[in-house]
Amino acid sequence: MDKIVVKGGKKLSGTVRVSGAKNSALPIMAACLLGSEKSVLEGVPNLRDVQTMCRLLRVIGARVIFENDRLEITPFSKMKPVAPYHLVSTMRASVCVLGPLLARLGSAQVSLPGGCVIGARPIDLHLKGLQALGAQIQISHGDVYAGTKGKLQGKEIYLGGAFGSSVLATANVMMAATLAHGVTLIENAASEPEVVDLADFLNKMGAKIEGHGSHLIKIQGVRKLHGANHTIIPDRIEAGTFMVAAAITKGDVTVQNCEPEHLNALIDKLQQAGVSVKRSKGSVRVSRKGRLKPIDVTALPYPGFPTDLQAQIMALMAVTPGISVITEKIYPDRFMHVSELNRMGCRIFLEGSSAIVNGVQKISGAPVMASDLRASAALVLAGLAGEGETHVSRIYHLDRGYERIEEKLSSLGADIRRAKE
Ligand code: EPZ
């Protein structure tokens, strides 16, 4: 297993280019199963999760060619609508083949995604939405069996959950509805940029979707979808991670190939803390000179502050003297990074779904362990600011969502390398 070794104290400077969005690429890859011909995706990041989705599509029945950041997906006329446990258990996003398979073939067997360290990760909203479209759903021996006699039927569906909207449930139901008979209305739909990107791709395939980006999405079912070419939007979470890296090292970094308007909540919080953020077309420049001020952050569905940047902003607040309160409304247990940050001298206390961050002047490098994708990013960020060396182990978590992060950070001047455990 690999680890990352980072020696803190270097100010980051220069420019870094963001890859395509993992959380847009994954559902769009599943959507290719809806098309009768080849689709070509550009700007696809070479990540473990993308490789897992490639394997899953091959197992189901598609020709998948992935070279550089270009992905060609051609579904076979004969497909096996099964997503096996050994793949779904390593990547929850596999669940978004359910909607396309059901719509295209009238049946699907998808292993129930287990929980993960950030929370229970249920799929009740996915199943509620597909049932509303007329699917029969059964769960047995850990698998979801979905079937439909004839076409799915368009419906008005409320997809709100206790935590607000669901990104992948919206994706699954929207994909299934493209081939349903009649009109589907999804109320309390997720409005994340990745949902918008998926809808844009589906419309290029011949779907009739409007309202994406709002909480009310309307899908007029069509008879069939063809292939399409599409460039994946930039990864706002990777972009945000580099913005925090600039702030935590008192650096001056331009993050290129990003959509600043996808980062409004983070930009607002960084500016509140005293970080300078300058927007341009397709990039942001982040610099920080003096002391920062503590801030309060609440992770909410888009356009609220993204839960996927909660651990990263916590690392910054951990070295910002004063009390910051960080509240998690999406995954109340998403605090695996706290105990590891405290090993580095941070003073963070959990109170229910909030973390009370007692910012300290300085933290020290230490051996720490990654637990989930974004927590590992937070540990690397803390390492950039820590005195001495930080060894982050189990970085396969990091490789799920960040493409060559150590190379990108060292191109900004970080003293960081990948090593064997
Ligand atoms: C997507 O997961 C992202 N993953 C997650 O990013 C992200 O954290 C999450 O959205 C929230 O923004 C991908 O897009 C591949 P949800 P998703 O359904 O769709 C509850 C990362 O680090 N819920 O929006 O699975 C759920 O428990 C990953 O890149 C139900 O109750 O998340 C959570 O509390 C981590 N029932 C809330 O809704 C359901 O059927 C939001 O989850 C579905 C979800």
From TrEMBL:
<dbReference type="InterPro" id="IPR050068">
    <property type="entry name" value="MurA_subfamily"/>
</dbReference>
<comment type="pathway">
    <text>Cell wall biogenesis; peptidoglycan biosynthesis.</text>
</comment>
<comment type="similarity">
    <text>Belongs to the EPSP synthase family. MurA subfamily.</text>
</comment>
<feature type="modified residue" description="2-(S-cysteinyl)pyruvic acid O-phosphothioketal">
    <location>
        <position position="116"/>
    </location>
</feature>
<dbReference type="GO" id="GO:0008760">
    <property type="term" value="F:UDP-N-acetylglucosamine 1-carboxyvinyltransferase activity"/>
</dbReference>
<protein>
    <recommendedName>
        <fullName>UDP-N-acetylglucosamine 1-carboxyvinyltransferase</fullName>
        <ecNumber>2.5.1.7</ecNumber>
    </recommendedName>
</protein>
<feature type="domain" description="Enolpyruvate transferase">
    <location>
        <begin position="6"/>
        <end position="409"/>
    </location>
</feature>
<feature type="binding site">
    <location>
        <position position="92"/>
    </location>
    <ligand>
        <name>UDP-N-acetyl-alpha-D-glucosamine</name>
    </ligand>
</feature>
<dbReference type="InterPro" id="IPR005750">
    <property type="entry name" value="UDP_GlcNAc_COvinyl_MurA"/>
</dbReference>
<keyword id="KW-0133">Cell shape</keyword>
<keyword id="KW-0573">Peptidoglycan synthesis</keyword>
<keyword id="KW-0132">Cell division</keyword>
<dbReference type="GO" id="GO:0008360">
    <property type="term" value="P:regulation of cell shape"/>
</dbReference>
<dbReference type="GO" id="GO:0071555">
    <property type="term" value="P:cell wall organization"/>
</dbReference>
<dbReference type="GO" id="GO:0009252">
    <property type="term" value="P:peptidoglycan biosynthetic process"/>
</dbReference>
<dbReference type="InterPro" id="IPR001986">
    <property type="entry name" value="Enolpyruvate_Tfrase_dom"/>
</dbReference>
<dbReference type="GO" id="GO:0019277">
    <property type="term" value="P:UDP-N-acetylgalactosamine biosynthetic process"/>
</dbReference>
<feature type="binding site">
    <location>
        <begin position="121"/>
        <end position="125"/>
    </location>
    <ligand>
        <name>UDP-N-acetyl-alpha-D-glucosamine</name>
    </ligand>
</feature>
<dbReference type="GO" id="GO:0051301">
    <property type="term" value="P:cell division"/>
</dbReference>
<dbReference type="InterPro" id="IPR013792">
    <property type="entry name" value="RNA3'P_cycl/enolpyr_Trfase_a/b"/>
</dbReference>
<keyword id="KW-0131">Cell cycle</keyword>
<keyword id="KW-0808">Transferase</keyword>
<keyword id="KW-0961">Cell wall biogenesis/degradation</keyword>
<keyword id="KW-0670">Pyruvate</keyword>
<feature type="active site" description="Proton donor">
    <location>
        <position position="116"/>
    </location>
</feature>
<dbReference type="InterPro" id="IPR036968">
    <property type="entry name" value="Enolpyruvate_Tfrase_sf"/>
</dbReference>
<keyword id="KW-0963">Cytoplasm</keyword>
<feature type="binding site">
    <location>
        <begin position="22"/>
        <end position="23"/>
    </location>
    <ligand>
        <name>phosphoenolpyruvate</name>
    </ligand>
</feature>
<comment type="function">
    <text>Cell wall formation. Adds enolpyruvyl to UDP-N-acetylglucosamine.</text>
</comment>
<dbReference type="Pfam" id="PF00275">
    <property type="entry name" value="EPSP_synthase"/>
</dbReference>
<dbReference type="GO" id="GO:0005737">
    <property type="term" value="C:cytoplasm"/>
</dbReference>
<feature type="binding site">
    <location>
        <position position="308"/>
    </location>
    <ligand>
        <name>UDP-N-acetyl-alpha-D-glucosamine</name>
    </ligand>
</feature>
<feature type="binding site">
    <location>
        <position position="330"/>
    </location>
    <ligand>
        <name>UDP-N-acetyl-alpha-D-glucosamine</name>
    </ligand>
</feature>
